[in-house]
Amino acid sequence: MYNKFVWSDMNRFHYYSMVLYVVICFLFIYLYKNLPIYEDKLRTTLLSQSIDGIDASADKLIEKIIYSDNDFLKNNIKDTTLRKKNIQRLKDFKNRNISSAYIIVPIKDKFFILLDSADNNIDLGPQLFILDGIDENSFLKAKKTKKKQIYIQKNINDLGFTLIKPIVKDRKLSAFFVIDYTQKTYNSLTSLLRVSAKIIMGFLILLIVLLTIFILYFLRNSYLKNRMYRNPNTGTFYRSYLTDNYEKINFSDYYIVLADIDFFKRVNDIYGQANGDRVLDSIMIKISSLLNKEDIFIEYGGEEFLILISKNDTDVERFKSRIEDMREMVESLNIKIKNDTINLTISIGAFIQTESATSLQDAIHKADAALYDSKHNGRNIVTYFDISDRTRIYREKLKDMIESDKLVCFYQPIISLKDNQVHHYEALLRIEDGDEIIYPDKILPDLENSYFYSRISMKVIEYNVKKLEEDKNLKISINLSSDDLINDAILAILRKSSYISDRMIIEILETKNADYEKLETSIGKLKLLGYKFCIDDYGSGYSSLNHLLNLSIDCLKIDGSIIKNIDKDKKTYSLIRSLNLFCHNNGIKVVAEFVENKDILDTLVELGIDYGQGYYFDKPKPYDEI
Q1: Considering the domain boundaries, does residue 60 fall inside one?
Q2: Which of 388, 403, 422 is the last residue before a domain boundary?
Q3: Element (H or E) spanning 354, and its range?
């Protein structure tokens, strides 16, 4: 199973920081080992820049001695007066920074001193130059490149460094102008270099220390974050990993699988949450054993798992075989809890053509749609999303419209029958598809029991909370299913929005197999926050008198299928009268739906019904029109 260490999750900044750290450490070690060599090069560069003024004066002197004389070598050898004059020029060129200056002539592989500022015996002529204390390589390099060279003296104590200037005449090397600088000059020029070298080394050491602290801090945080992402019992990822890495996962490289353990709620109800968690852990460990290293296993929610199967070395047929093996393996497990042995099954939805998805979320939605089909076709089966299925395509279109904020609410007034005033408005779900309005009866059946059903409820809450914030005089009721009211995510939104609870009534849409114990617990907690509750469409679907006895409700809305006959049918009239009496004796308000004409209204008023709703008062309208 997917088990990359924190390095794979590093963003670019941290990655480049690590690379920079390694490069700097390498450079530091390299510089430290080769420091003497680089110090010499730096000194040479600094000295070259520091003597630019003297270098310019030397060029002028060379112009006088050499370039103004067509045959300066022959003339300086034969003409003692000229020789004496040029030696004096060299002596005048010297200053407190220059120890000596001389002109050397290369003849074949040897060097001869032609003029020397320290020469007191002018008649001797050119002397063979002995390379004592001078680096021969510097002369050879100057001869080859015809560029000046600086040689730092290490063997002569009273000299600091020597400048060798090639003298080129008619594109040929004619001679060298050599200047010896004093040790004092050298020391004054290189003192700054020594300080600079220490500063640079200190800065590098400080930089490495700071980078070391930063990298260790980052690695520690990455390690802790990696642990935070994983279930320590199974090694699988929590959903937070998916939340933080949506953009990093290249979903087209994976097959997407959503799996749900069938009727797992019964295990928790019978054996308790702790035993249920242990069963989940054992199943996840078994499923993990069927996964490859590159696959990603995520605990998506409760008993639902999201698995990303790498397409690398896994073709479609092999993928289908692996998923079927997974289903059969769970089915064959004999799980022991206390003294019982239980068997479980798993429903699976898969999406193969992930390259056609617009995002990872879109790919997950398609796998969720396939899982929905598995649950509604008997469970314990694998269903693959069919991108050519028109019904499913329409369902996907609905999901896209919901996510793109095309969900709106129309509002129908609930009228107080005592004073004929608007008591509040019921928010009714609609979806705008261009100029067309899509109604709930075309939306909800296709999305029931899917991930997006609860997403619609969240969107409805958020939409109406915003309206209540904008209009302080507005009071509304919204429709939530009994399943919604035990959904942790929806309860969290309601708790967060409790500051408007006095203006939001929750109408409960009853569902089959609702957990009324949990529902009553949720209602009790939300009533403490100020919310009021109403049972919607009483008299149809799954509603019963038992719900009135067990749920802490504030209001009962009687279904229109009963109300529409109240002015004509005596049995209906008697039933509503008895129900109204029961509700009033127990502090429950009554709302009658389907008030379509004055006869129905008059009958409801006669019975003492509190509120009415129907086209006789007004039809549902957008907020801007109410």
Answers
A1: yes
A2: 388
A3: none
Q: What is the mean pLDDT of residues 404-427?
A: 91
* Strand 532-538 with 504-509, pairing: parallel
Residue 234 domain flag: no
What DSSP assignment string belongs to 390-433? Answer: HHHHHHHHHHHHHHTT-EEEEEEEEEETTTTEEEEEEEEEEEEE
Residue 124 reports pLDDT greater than 60: no
Give the torsion sign (CA, 538, 507, 516, 581): negative
pLDDT digits (tens, 9 = 90+) for 310-367: 998 889 999 999 999 999 999 999 988 888 889 999 999 999 999 888 889 889 988 9
Rounded Cα distance between 309 and 323, Å, is 10
Residue type for position 93? F
Q: What is the pLDDT of residue 253?
A: 92
Instruction: Name the domain count of the chain.
Output: 3
Asked if 19 and 98 sit in the same domain, the reply is yes
- Pair (313, 246) in one structural domain: yes
Q: In this structure, is residue 365 part of a structural domain?
A: yes
Domain boundary residue, one of 205, 229, 253: 229
Our measurement of the distance from residue 230's CA atom to the centroid of its chain's CA atoms, rounded to an integer in Å, reads: 18
Do both 413 and 559 map to the same domain? yes
Structural domain contains residue 605 = yes
Cα(411)–Cα(409) distance, rounded to whole angstroms?
Answer: 6
Q: Which residues pair with 107 in a beta bridge?
A: 110
Take residue 127 and report the two structure tokens written for it: 């002397």
Alpha helices (runs of H) in 246-389, residue ranges in sequence order = 265-271, 273-288, 316-332, 360-376
Read off the pTM. 0.46
Range 445-467 burial, b when 16+ CB lie within 10 A, else e: ebbeebbbbbbbbbbbbebbbeb
Give the tens place of pLDDT for each residue, 563-582.
998 988 899 999 999 999 99
User: How far is residue 303's CA from residue 262's CA, in Å, rounded to a whole number?
Assistant: 9
Q: Tokens 């959503």 belong to which residue?
A: 258
Q: How far apart are CA 484 and CA 481, in angstroms?
A: 5
Does 353 share its domain with 464?
A: no
The residue segments making up the domain with residue 571 are 395-625
Q: How many CA atoms lie within 13 A of 324 on its CB side?
A: 7
Residues 6+ apart with CB under 8 A from 582: 548
If asked whether residues 145 and 77 sit together in one domain, one would say: yes
Q: What is the chain's length?
A: 626
Q: Reduce the DSSP state of residue 19 to 3 states and report it.
A: helix
Residues 219 and 249 in one domain: no
Q: What is the CATH number of the domain that holds 429?
A: 3.20.20.450
SS3 assignment, position 194:
helix
